[in-house]
Structure formats: C-alpha cells, structure tokens
UniProtKB/TrEMBL annotation, chains A, B:
Protein's name according to its UniProt entry: Xanthine phosphoribosyltransferase
Species of provenance: Apilactobacillus xinyiensis
Family as reported in the entry's similarity comment: Belongs to the purine/pyrimidine phosphoribosyltransferase family. Xpt subfamily.
Catalyses which reaction(s): XMP + diphosphate = xanthine + 5-phospho-alpha-D-ribose 1-diphosphate
Quaternary structure and interacting proteins, as annotated: Homodimer.
Database matches in PANTHER family: HYPOXANTHINE/GUANINE PHOSPHORIBOSYLTRANSFERASE, XANTHINE PHOSPHORIBOSYLTRANSFERASE
InterPro entries, A to Z: PRTase-like (IPR029057), PRTase_dom (IPR000836), Pur/Pyrimidine_PRTase (IPR050118), Xanthine_PRibTrfase (IPR010079)
Gene name in the database record: xpt
A Gene Ontology molecular function term of the record: xanthine phosphoribosyltransferase activity
C-alpha cells in the first residue's frame, strides 16, 4: 500500500533496537482517514474469504480492526490483556510474550464472541515475532473456529513472525513490509 | 439516541454493583456500524465547536473516538494507561482512579499530540464518576488547550460525573443517559 509506505517514510522514526515509531498516525495518535483506507484495502484482500468475525488485541489493533469491520460489515472482537471487571470467567485465554515490553500477558476473549462456525480474520498493527498473532490463533483453535486470514498493517519482514505463520499454512497479507531498519532508514521489501 | 437505547435494552446486562455490561457491542465485541452512527451523532452535536482534535483513553474509548474522528475529519489521540516502549518521557501525565477496578492508573499523552491552540473534543464510552474525563481535562489544561466538548456514549446519570463536569462549566453530551439500574432494569432519563 503505497500511501502507507509514504506515510511511514514521512512520519515514522527509527529508534535503536529495530523499533519503528509510528505514533503520529497509528498507535497513539490515530489518523482516522488512513485507518478507513486501510480497512478498504483489507476488505479487498480478504473479501472472498467469507469472513464472519474480526479478532485483534487491545489497544493498537482496535482502530484498524474496527475500520476493517466497518468496510466488511462484520463484528470486531478485541482480546483483553487486562481482565475487565465485567469479564466473566467463561473465556478463552492464551499467553503472549512481548519482546519489546519484556512481559508475558494473558490475552482473553469471552467464549460468547467466537463460535466453531466462525471464519475469523485476524488484524493487528504490527507483525514482528508474531507472538500476539500466535495467541489469537491459539484462541481461535480453542474455539474450533477457522483462521481465514491474517491482515497486518506494518510487517517487520526481517523478524521471524511471517515465516513461521506461512510455515503453519496461514494466509498473511501485510500492507507495508519492512526489509530493514538499518542505519535508521526504512527499507521496504521489493 | 434511540437506536443506542434500544440496543442497550436488547443486549445489555445489569450486574450487581450498578454495573452495566455492554460487551456485545461496545467494549469487548464492537459493532462497527453502530460506532459509525455514534460518530455521525457526535459530529452533529459538536460540529459547530471547531474541533481540531479528539482525545480518549485506551481501550474502550478508541472505537467510538476513531469513528467520530472519521466523521469530523480530525486526528484522534488515545491516552495510554500503560507506558509504551516507544513513548518518550515528554508526556503530559494525570492520575485516574478507577472505582470499578479499584486501581489508580497514570494516563499519559505525548506532548507532540496536543497544542495550546487545540479545541479538543473528549470522547469516552462511559461516564460514571467522571475520573477518566477529569484526567483528560487535566492533561488538556496542562497543554493550555481548550476543552470544547465532552461526548459520552453511555452516561450513568445517577452517579456524580456529569453533575461535577457541568458545575465546572463543560458542555457534556451523552447519547444514552441512564437514570437507574435498580432491580436489574435499565431506566433512561426522561
């Protein structure tokens, strides 16, 4: 997605440790018009997959997931990292290790919001090591539902997340694929 | 907003302790079409206020805030409760006590995302005691920006949040106003 790549080059900042900071439009400040175009792009990519539900993880996945749900006209469920007071114990739970934050979170989704006949599209803002996506896949499998696709806004292609997901047979589509962040410069996959 | 009230009656559940559970469409599973209608409603209510930016708090505020930002064509910033690895120390911080979770969170917003010439619309999913909104108001005042309005999806009018905000001179608009949750029944303000 050319528009997204241009925005990453214009507004993104590369920090040490292969961290790409895109908090001006994606994960602290959010550009709603860009999110809407991202939603339209994911609809194009996954429209034939008969998606019945979108899953993501709070918080940064919510904006792109909800705009994709708006375009595809399906409900969106965001997994919680922190137990909500209204959350029942009737939940699917999986462990997600965050390499950037160096903590393990339990992510959970109420069992009422994923059924065995669901074709689920996973949406997330970043794919690096793939831990969050693996947690969502685990929950979808616990529910005996189908993982119909994985849509990622920004993929760090030099980290092992995509390779493992492809090896596991999943259909992964990323709107921007980053080959390298070396020398504080963003280089995209050709 | 009649459609929202009907949805609360149809899908909401009242739990003990005056808790209204609306996780089927607002704060765990999200109905994107409803969020879009909520965005249109907030645009109608605040269109004359020359809004330049929308502020909310992660996670449940993000969906209604981003759809309102899409309708009003302004950027949305969500305050973080948990420090992000890419977040600089250059942030406005305020304390928010959660009565439901019984914890105090620091919420923070990077100083780059709120300026003294901003007319800010605060959007949140719930207003009860008003702690989250007070935290956002505090941050907006630290930035010497203007609080142009406060838009709430569901207000528990029997709790003190709105009264205090009105006493402080703020323009509060809530799409559903709940007078009581007594006897596990939702009664709206006439």
């Amino acid at each position: 997605m050319k528009l997204l790549e241009d925005r990453i080059v214009k507004d993104g900042t590369v920090l040490s440790g292969d961290i790409l900071k895109v908090d001006t439009f994606l994960n602290h400040q959010v550009d709603p018009q860009l999110m809407n175009l991202i939603g339209k792009e994911f609809k194009k990519l996954f429209d034939k997959n008969n998606i019945t539900r979108i899953l993501t993880v709070e918080s940064s996945g919510i904006a792109p997931a909800v705009l994709t749900g708006l375009q595809m006209n399906v409900p969106v469920v965001f997994a919680r990292k922190h137990k909500s007071v209204t959350m029942s114990d009737n939940a699917f739970v999986s462990d997600v290790y965050s390499y950037t934050k160096k903590v393990t979170n339990h992510i959970s989704i109420d069992k009422r919001f994923i059924n065995s006949d669901d074709n689920v599209l996973i949406i997330d803002d970043f794919l690096a090591n793939g831990q969050a996506v693996h947690g969502l896949v685990d929950i979808i499998h616990q529910a005996k539902a189908n993982v119909s696709g994985i849509g990622i806004v920004i993929e760090k292609s030099f980290q092992p997340g995509r390779k493992q997901l492809e090896k596991d047979g999943f259909n992964v589509k990323s709107l921007a694929r980053i080959a390298s962040l070396d020398n504080n410069k963003v280089t995209f996959v050709e």
